[in-house]
Amino acid sequence: MFSLSSNASSAQRSDGPSSSAPKRRMGDPIVLSLTMGFIALFVFFSLFDASATKTLIGDGFTWTAKYLGSFFQVLLLLTFLWLSVLQFHVRAQRALAI
Question: Going by fewer Cβ within 10 Å, which terminus of the chain is more open, N or C?
Fold first, then answer.
């Protein structure tokens, strides 16, 4: 909460001591640790057994294309249609406003 003192011209925070420089973090340290761990595991696994890594990536891509390919095609089509309608609507509004 902010409160104004009678002899000060600026607002001061009343919920604790003020700090001159707030702490800045680049992101969540847990997410950073998990990401670095997965990347390190992937690199280690790739160095240990490259053919198994290649097979795992290929199988994952094949599964994604088989089961999610149609979904992504429909999603791209709907996005294109939505943007086309939106573009037409904006141009129509500009034409009517003049």
Answer: C
Asked if 1 and 14 count as a contact pair (C-beta separation under 8 A), the reply is: yes
Report the number of distinct structural domains present in the chain.
1
For residues 74, 80, 81 and 85, what is the CA-based torsion angle, rounded to 10 degrees?
Answer: 160
Using 70 as the pLDDT threshold, list the residues of the chain that sit under it: 1-22, 98
Residue 21 falls inside a structural domain: no
Q: In this structure, is residue 9 part of a structural domain?
A: no
Q: How far apart are CA 38 and CA 28, in angstroms?
A: 16
Show the domain range for 75: 50-98
pLDDT digit string, tens, across residues 23-44: 777 788 999 999 999 999 999 9
pTM: 0.45
DSSP three-state, residue 35: helix
Give domain status of residue 87, yes or no.
yes
Residue 74 within a domain: yes
